[in-house]
Amino acid sequence: MADFVSQALDNSAHGLTTTKAAEKLGLSHVQELVSGMEVKLLEHQLVGVAWMIDQERDSPHKGGILADDMGLGKTVQMIATMVINQPLPEDKHRATLIVVPAALLQQWKEELETKTNCAFDIHIQHGKDKIKDPRQLAEWDVVITTYQTLTGDFNIPAGIEEGGEVDWVKQHGGPMSQVKWYRVVCDEAQFIRNRSTRSSMIVAMLRANYRWCLTGTPVTNTLADIYGYLRFGRFRPWNDWQDFNEYVAKMQLEDAPLAGMRAQQILRPLLLRRTKEGKKEDGSPLLDLPPKQVDLEYLQFSDDERALYDQFEKQAQVQINRFIRNNTLLKNSHHVLVLILRLRQLCAHPHLILESAQGFDDPTMIMGSEMEKEVSRATATMGAPWVRNIKDRYLQRACALDFDWDDDESDAAMCCKCGDLLVESTGRIMGCGDEICVDCVDDLRTGNIEHNGEFGGHDEKTNARLEKQFETAAAKGLRPCPKCKKMQDLRPNNIFRAAAFAPSQEDINRARRNRRSRPVKRRKVVSESESESEEDVKPQRKSSGKPVKKEIDIINLSDSDSDDSMPDISTLLKSSPKSQGKDKKKAKVEDTDENMSGSDVDAPKRNGKGKAKAKRKPSSTPRPSQQAGSRKPSGTPAPPKPPSDEMVAIWRRGGSNVEPSTKMLALVEYLKTWAADRPDDKVIVFSQWTSMLDLCEQLFARYGIRNLRYDGQMGREAREYTLSQFKRRGGPKVILVSIRCGGVGLNLVAANRVINLDLSWNYAAESQAYDRVHRLGQDKEVVVKRLVVHGTIEERMLTLQDTKLGLAEAALGEGSGTRLQKLSVKQIKDLFGMSSINKNPQDPNQTQLDL
After folding, report:
1. C-alpha to C-alpha distance for 794 and 785, rounded to whole angstroms
2. Are 548 and 407 contacting, i.e. CB atoms less than 8 angstroms apart?
């Protein structure tokens, strides 16, 4: 391994000067055109092309990684290399395959045609123009395709033995998989950096003489990113994962700076990277571009937005605290990422998260666990008393087991239809409160309705009325409960997972403390017939003919509604399920965590900023933490109150009635100011969420701002038309762009103003998007505004962006690598603004969570 690194360093091509590069390319001076090119290469581009020619002709690697900063001309350097090193007449394989994101298909074709005066025959292998015959495809000089289209040509079935995939695609794969290419180029090669993705695995199977990766961000999250390039390029020995993992990837966890230096050693003979800040041989700037100004603009939420954000963030803090206490933070890393995403969306506009929270009694429950969401859904559908009744039943059952009552089996939950024991994954609860297994629910819902002769026990008129009601209910899809015989709506929205109502260990411990704090009461012998009349304390029993005597501690956990309070069939037939839910909501009381204040508010009043402010009526009932015997675990924040219905309704609005958020108002203000001061400037508005772009479009229509739209949901022709309209004189001066779709490869120098509505997880993705504007061809000063809301997760993300940037610098030789690290538990708590909330003595800050 040491010998390999040493020899590779000896053969490094980084010592090329501009003069030497011109000589290698057969030019008499640096200002001369390369034969076959229609444009003059800049000095750094001459060096790059000379190095690439050396890599193809004189290096064992037969390719490499061109990782120049965005805007330095990677595309033109690749085209010049293709022009200079064309296949010879005797070469059997002559076609070059260029794999690009879909947005760049037409741009690559235009660049090849204009830079070479149509020297190549070019075919775009995409959509309806795909060629199915591999021999016909191989006759073209250049074939341009997308990563997705290429993946479709490698549709390898399951069961193929390891190592046999290449042989299979030679015989059965699509046309591109069967061709052996003269050269393969992966543009925006960060698409293949993750070794486990299909795109990364597929490009490694391509057969070619030369292989090139073009990317401005070769490393973004981890040093393992570079393995995808090494595997594709077949740069031995590091294209073997076991070798690379032992030497670099694992070492990153133990000694990050050393891993960074090892990555430098591996990349040095394979990679050429220049940055815009680099210098020419005479000390002048490598690229003479207008200045780029990137400003962080801190905004303040309106009162309503701050109230909403704080409530949702508190709910997220409850979840993180639970993970930390249970030592399950690593196990729930995906859920942590979801919480981060929700809070970031809330910073952009509350609609993005409230739209997804419809159906929950408390919208903040979208931040909760799946079980908490289920309880919130049940509260919204059935009402708080129903939920409280079910929870009390499950708490009593759990206490019966915990207090060592006799005959534990009688307290087990059983399906009211088939009698099977219910487990966490199979238990369901119907609207009547009875328990049933998921299989029996499906059988009841899809099978014929069972009446079991209930219509013969009354007088003729009553029997006819009941039978008609029964038929009407059956026509509506209702079915009788096998136990209580009440008609039930068994559609999924009205069936609830039983596991969601199971008490936590904290609930059981609290009940145990309550039991110990009360005076000991006499034990009472209760027969089965007697216990049936006492709804609050009866445990479920197996049906047997003998009365079972048990000793029961009489513990008043809470008053529960009995089954007698459920509506009969006539009531169900008079009202729809939706109206039933509304009637039950009216019965809510404010004495548990499920019943928060906010339903009794005055009509919303407008403040000076145009935001609605809802008045809350304080609850007269003490919170659970104030009641006797109730105590919150140390370090756990109090459960947040749900936002008022009026506030949620205002911020949930989309479409033409959208309430503008703080960021949207700032966006409009910037556009109005720039339009007045610099009327010729054009603006790009970036966001990561197309739903946010939708809201901005609605707001622009309200203010009369002409704009265009560019995102991944548009077809190729529509995107090309949009770009042509934006570039022409007199066209709209504002374009809304999805940062995921428009952040790579595009040339958008027609604009010189950028507004980014939301921060990316790492700054490299943002920087790449900004460089769509700040690149060759830009003749105006570029101004970038990054909008950040003060006192939110966005502000705290800025430090994490520094962490990820340090990782890339360590691999590329642009920094010390001392910031290379993963996220500790402390960093997670900092991110959620809870470092002062949770001081867990068992919290080792060295515990890391790889996000």
Report:
1. 14
2. yes
- Cα separation values, 81 from 48, 66, 235, 609, Å: 9, 12, 20, 58
Out of 257, 272, 287, a domain closes at: 272
Query: 454, exposed or middle or buried, with CB in 10 Å at 0-12, 13-18, 19+?
Result: middle
What are the tens digits of pLDDT across the range 552-605?
332 233 333 333 333 333 333 333 334 444 444 433 333 333 333 333 333 333
Q: Does any domain span residue 239?
A: yes
**Does residue 828 form part of some domain?**
no
Closest alpha carbon to 52 in 70, 42, 67? 67
In angstroms, what CA-CA distances link 276 with 14, 86, 155, 169, 216? 17, 30, 41, 42, 11
- Pairing relationship of beta strands 550-552 and 524-526 according to DSSP bridges: antiparallel
Rounded CA-CA distance 331/323 in Å is: 9
d(C-alpha 708, C-alpha 713), whole Å: 14
- The beta strands (E) that lie in 164-282 are given as 180-187, 207-214, 271-272
Question: For the chain, how long is the longest CA-to-CA vector?
Answer: 113
Residue 711, domain extent:
655-789
**688 and 738 both lie in a single domain:** yes
Q: Is residue 808 part of a domain?
A: no
744: three-class secondary structure by DSSP: coil
* Burial (CB count <10 Å: 0-12, 13-18, 19+), residue 494: middle
Report d(CA 317, CA 310) in Å as an integer: 10
Average pLDDT of 233-257? 82
- Contact (CB, 8 A) for 215 and 765: no
pLDDT-based confidence at residue 63 (cuts at 50, 70, 90) = very high
CATH, residue 149: 3.40.50.10810
Does residue 258 sit in the same domain as residue 347? Answer: no
Q: Does the pLDDT value for residue 140 go beyond 70?
A: yes
Whole-prediction pTM value? 0.59
Residue 843 has pLDDT above 60, yes or no: no
Residues 314 and 458 in one domain: no
501 and 605 both lie in a single domain: no
Selection from 78, 193, 107, 99 nearest residue 154 by Cα: 99
pLDDT digits (tens, 9 = 90+) for 349-393: 999 988 776 655 566 666 666 677 777 778 777 888 888 888 888
